[in-house]
Specification:
The complex is a heterotrimer of chains A (327), B (487) and C (155). Chain A contains twelve helices and nine strands. Chain A is of the alpha/beta class. In chain A, strands 2-1-3-5-9 form a five-stranded parallel beta sheet. Chain A has a two-stranded antiparallel sheet with strand order 4-8. Chain A has three domains: 128 residues, NADH:ubiquinone oxidoreductase-like, 20kDa subunit (Rossmann fold, 3-Layer(aba) Sandwich); 40 residues, no CATH class; 106 residues, no CATH class. In chain A, 59% of the residues are buried. Chain B is α+β, with helices and mostly antiparallel strands. Among the domains of chain B are: 85 residues, no CATH class; 173 residues, Cytochrome-c3 Hydrogenase, chain B. Chain B is 40% helix and 18% strand. In chain B, the strands form six sheets. A four-stranded mixed beta sheet of chain B has the order 8-7-6-11, covered by helices on one side. Classes of the chains: A alpha/beta (327), B alpha+beta (487), C alpha/beta (155). At the A-B interface, helix 1, helix 2, helix 3, helix 6 and strand 7 of A face strand 1, strand 2, strand 3, helix 1 and helix 6 of B.
Chain lengths: 327, 487, 155
């Protein structure tokens, strides 16, 4: 075994986009290889759970943990990686705030399983029941149990750093890797624990090149129902753009491409509840003073809870809707 | 009963687990391939506005978000009964071809390739992309990185971002491309054609030039006779973005060709209580279990399936390779699953040629890239070919275009039954009474599902390795008798 | 001593009108239900929807927001902002399963002590009929981020 510091990357309930984002640092992956011993990265190399369990506690210097905590296996792995790692980074939107799979927290887990197993094309007798422990003629086999709600990483273990984004942009990942290598070489210090890294310190609006004027929103519309002016702020044209509440760092790629920001970089600095901040941003600039005028404008947003908590539901103050059963 | 558990297997969409049960003699009694994960997209997309679906369903898979993005965009077009302008369709297909280019490259060089370029019994530390690079040279490693970069650049130019594109909306796109971008894409496409030809050449030299590999490919262990599915244009040539779904039977005869909106009349999904994933099969043949043959509704959807289901490739260089493929392997259809690696390279070439075709289309820089829908939204189906198989999105909405119901049949899901069968057949062939189960044996079980490129085929460039496997052998009392590890 | 459910309602009250109205009710000895815990803000426009989320996730059964009548805001226009935020917030919370009767906005001038008292008592009874919200039971109330989690041994 070499004496390079150890590196690991693990994915819980994720889509793999974070892994691709890391690979999209292209040649820089060789810097990772040169400076670290990659000891555990299930998607890419051969170490397994037993190997991690056998490692000394705290022996992995840096672990990037992406994916939400959706089932008991994810939770087990979160706790294992926490034990074995000196620095645990909550990597990507799923681990930081729940991301898209966190939208499952609008339903309870029975509804989720039920829907999956009763789609139009699914064969299903009324007696069918999914079983996490099932006896086949040869023995008993099992699959993990879904937790009542999807959790963020810091809802189950202590996290050292947060790196948001869906996925984090590769240039940000490269910058963080550079920083860590500099720290290893004694040329830099780590940020204070609990910090959010790989991000800017403002909102997406700050990075967006569109022109901004005074906002007086007379209506909200849907992006497919209009041809917005590419030089002007989308929100001012009635397209519900989440820029005002979303952390900068991505380069405002989506507004540059003609699409509204959907909020994948998570809350701006100092924001405790992303959705609340966005509700406040949108509502404050509605051009209306009576309930009727105001209601008419917000009728243009058909799915407010989804609009405001699209990526952040699991990590929000409420964590989900009322139908989610207890912890 | 003795039991070997492989958990987790890697390079799969999400996670997967294999249980192998041995009888008293030490032969395989049965295998179970379990998928331990469910996130619930079909539930939580209900209540969301339909224009968000190309963005939300991106997050089903970060390796092939482009596939979901396009299937969702087409389903959303169908929901609004709107036909995007020709430039929009061409731009979407161009993005999609760029994506195929990067995705097939990644799979061949980092995932499937090492098994052949290094050999199935090569030392573990070498049977990966690093070993490949040492064997064939650093130059190739650089080319692979370049190929991935180019593919992602095309995706970003049209899709707005490299991972999780954001520009497809009902009726078209939110942006077009400039002449500078078009030129750059054309150049990347031309480079891509050479790279694809180089890759096929590499395959010819290293794989087809080696008798042991050829025997492995054409042998029976990795062979299954099933139905084959793929998206075809009106001339029955493979098209990744649009067309009708064609299914041929194990003899290669057309069984059905259906329009996207009719998928539910032809596909059903079987369930088992021990896994979160469902097993699609051909409804009109019926579910007969995990078995081969014309009477079994099991079908396969992979590059091999697409070539089997097609009458040819739509571009000239790929067509030449297609003909060589079938004349080498003895005609259509080809049932040997390892040949999928070769079929994938032919598709790589087609993708590159298609990039150039679309990038030189006079309409590709048109400013008319969106048609505003005027009809009321109701219901729609969108189908594309994902690299791992035919991808179907079906949405029902209310009059505001908010989703009331969702049905998704995802690429790899189509192959869940065939993969399970391939794993069992390989396990039965290699794990037998008297055989010492070592890591070479384990690799051969892996080689059974690897050709299907289960969705997350993205192994990396420079890490040592292979799949993490451990077999724990217990006696009848459940005591551990032996642990065979492959690190 | 009764087993009756006593709702806990947080009342975000603007300093200039509604807080004074509550004061007036007090000095005039107008009885009203004691279930509302008043939190004074300088203006209803200070209401950040985060406060409401925090109240609910912290265990409140209902939230009342009070402010000056439209046109009478001490800071001229900010109660319109409060109104806009309230309407959008309430739509969002309703979609998340929180019954509309639990979140209320009441305008009251400094002179309307009796009226405010009546509105409060009315709301308490409505929330009592809806029952406890018990958000921590539904969603596992925890501190915002766990500062230290005892490790479990079994992996």
């Amino acid at each position: 075994m070499s004496d390079k510091p150890k590196f690991a990357m693990y994915w819980a309930a994720s889509c793999g986009g974070c892994e691709i984002a890391v690979l999209n640092i292209h040649e820089k992956i060789l810097d990772v290889d040169a400076n670290f011993d990659v000891v555990f990265w299930p998607v890419a190399m051969d170490a397994k759970y037993k190997d991690v369990e056998a490692m000394d506690d705290g022996s992995i210097l840096l672990t990037l943990f992406n994916g939400g905590i959706r089932n008991d296996e994810n939770e087990k792995m979160a706790k294992l990686m926490r034990r074995k790692s000196k620095i645990l980074v909550s990597f990507g939107s799923c681990a930081c705030e729940g991301c898209i799979p966190g939208l499952a927290n609008f339903s309870n887990v029975d509804e989720i399983i039920d829907t999956a197993f009763h789609t139009l094309t699914t064969d299903n007798g009324s007696e069918f029941k999914l079983q996490t422990h099932y006896s086949v003629p040869e023995g008993e086999i099992h699959i993990p149990t879904l937790l009542p709600r999807l959790k963020t990483l810091d809802q189950v273990v202590k996290v050292d750093y947060y790196m948001p984004g869906c996925p984090p942009e590769s240039h940000q990942i490269a910058a963080v890797i550079d920083l860590v290598i500099q720290v290893l070489q004694g040329k830099a210090t780590l940020p204070p624990p609990g910090a959010t890294i790989g991000v800017g310190n403002s909102t997406v609006c700050d990075e967006c090149k569109r022109a901004r004027n005074e906002k007086k929103i007379k209506y909200f519309t849907r992006i497919q129902l209009t041809h917005p002016d590419p030089a002007l702020c989308l929100l001012e044209q009635g397209i519900p753009c989440n820029g005002p509440a979303t952390r900068s760092g991505c380069g405002a790629l989506c507004p540059a491409a003609g699409a509204q920001c959907i909020g994948c970089y998570g809350p701006a600095e100092g924001v405790m509840d992303y959705g609340s901040r966005l509700i406040s941003s949108f509502a404050s600039v509605i051009d209306g003073n009576t309930p009727q005028e105001i209601e008419k404008v917000i009728d243009g947003i058909p799915d407010p809870a989804g609009q405001f908590y699209r990526f952040s539901l699991a990590g929000s103050l409420l964590r989900g809707s009322k139908t989610v059963k207890s912890n | 009963m003795q039991r070997l558990t492989i958990d987790p297997i890697t390079r799969l969409e999400g996670h997967g687990k294999i249980e192998i049960f041995l009888d008293e003699e030490g032969n395989v009694a049965n295998t179970y391939f379990q998928i331990p994960e469910l996130r619930g997209f079909e539930r939580f997309c209900v209540g969301r506005p339909v224009e968000e679906m190309p963005l939300l369903t991106n997050r089903i898979c970060g390796v092939c978000p482009e596939a979901h993005h396009m299937a969702a965009a087409k389903a959303a077009d169908a929901v609004y009964h709107v036909d995007p302008p020709p430039a929009a369709k061409k731009l979407r297909e161009l993005l999609y071809s760029g994506f195929y280019f990067t995705d097939h490259t990644t799979h061949f060089y980092a995932l499937g390739g090492p098994d052949f370029i290094m050999g199935p019994d090569a030392p573990v530390a070498e049977r990966n992309i690093l070993g490949v690079i040492h064997k064939v040279g650093l130059e190739i490693g650089g080319k692979v990185i370049q190929a991935r970069k180019y593919g992602h650049t095309i995706v970003e130019m049209i899709g707005g971002r490299k991972v999780h594109p954001c520009t497809s909306i009902p009726g078209g796109l939110t942006k077009g491309i400039t002449e500078e971008q078009r030129k750059e894409i054309e150049q990347m496409g031309r480079w891509g054609i050479e790279f694809a030809q180089f890759s096929i050449d590499l395959f010819n030299k290293i794989v087809l030039g080696n008798k042991a590999y050829v025997d492995l490919i054409i042998g029976d262990i990795y062979t299954h006779h099933t139905y084959y599915m793929g998206l075809m244009d009106e001339k029955n040539k493979v098209n990744f973005y649009d067309g009708k779904v064609r299914v041929v039977d194990p003899d290669g005869k057309e069984f059905v060709k259906y329009a996207p909106k009719d998928y539910a009349a032809h596909i059903a999904e079987h369930v088992e209580p021990w896994t979160y994933l469902k097993f699609p099969y051909l409804k009109n043949v019926g579910w007969k279990g995990f078995v081969d043959g014309k009477d079994s509704g099991v079908y396969c959807a992979t590059p091999l399936s697409r070539l089997n289901a097609a009458d040819g490739m739509a571009t000239p260089l790929a067509q030449e390779e297609y003909e060589k493929f079938y004349s080498t392997l003895g005609g259509k259809p080809v049932h040997q699953r390892l040949a999928t690696h070769w079929a994938r390279l032919i598709e790589l070439l087609y993708a590159a040629e298609r990039i150039v075709e679309l990038a030189t289309d006079p309409e590709i820089t048109s400013p008319n890239f969106h048609t505003i829908p005027t009809e009321k939204p109701t219901e729609g189906v969108g189908i594309v070919e994902a690299p791992r198989g035919t991808l179907t999105h079906h949405y029902w909405t209310d009059e505001r275009g908010v989703l009331t119901k969702v049905n998704l049949i995802v690429g790899t899901t189509n192959n869940y039954a065939p993969m399970s069968m391939s794993i069992k057949k390989a396990a039965e062939a290699f794990i037998k009474k008297g055989v010492v189960v070592n890591e070479g044996i384990l690799n051969r079980v892996e080689m059974a599902f690897r050709p299907y490129d289960p969705c997350f085929g993205c192994a990396t460039h420079s890490l040592p390795g292979q799949m993490p496997l451990q077999l724990t052998i217990r006696n009848a009392k459940g005591e551990v008798v032996e642990v065979v590890k492959r690190d | 001593m009764t087993d009756q459910f006593e709702p806990v309602i947080i009342g975000f009250t603007c300093n200039w009108c509604s807080y004074r109205a509550a004061d007036l009710a007090g000095t005039a000895r107008v009885k009203y239900a004691p279930n509302v815990r008043l939190i004074r803000m300088m203006c209803s426009g200070r209401l950040d929807p985060t406060f409401v989320m925090k109240a609910i996730s912290g265990g409140a059964d209902g939230v009342l927001i009070t402010g000056c009548h439209p046109g009478e805001c001490h800071y001229i226009e900010q109660n319109y902002k409060a109104l806009r935020r309230f309407i959008l917030l309430k739509r969002t919370l309703t979609q998340m399963g929180i019954e509309p009767g639990r979140i209320k906005l009441v305008w009251a001038s400094a002179a309307e002590g009796v009226r405010l008292a009546t509105e409060i008592t009315k709301m308490v009874e409505e929330v009592r009929a809806l029952g406890p919200l018990n958000w921590d039971h539904h969603n596992g109330h925890q501190p915002l981020a766990i500062s230290h989690q005892p490790e479990e041994v079994a992996a």
